Amino acid sequence: MPRPGSIIIVSLLGLVSLPLLAAWLVPGGLELRLTLVKEERPVLVLPLKPEERFTIHYYHSVENAPIWEEHSMDKNGKIYIEEEKYEKFGAGMGKMPGVGRMVKQGIYEVITDMHMPVGDFILRVGSPGVDHTLIWRNRRYNLSDTMAHKAVRFSGKPVSMLKQIWRSLWIPRKLAGSKDS
Question: Which of 14, 56, 72, 140 has the least CB density, counted as fewest CB within 10 Å?
Answer without folding.
Answer: 14
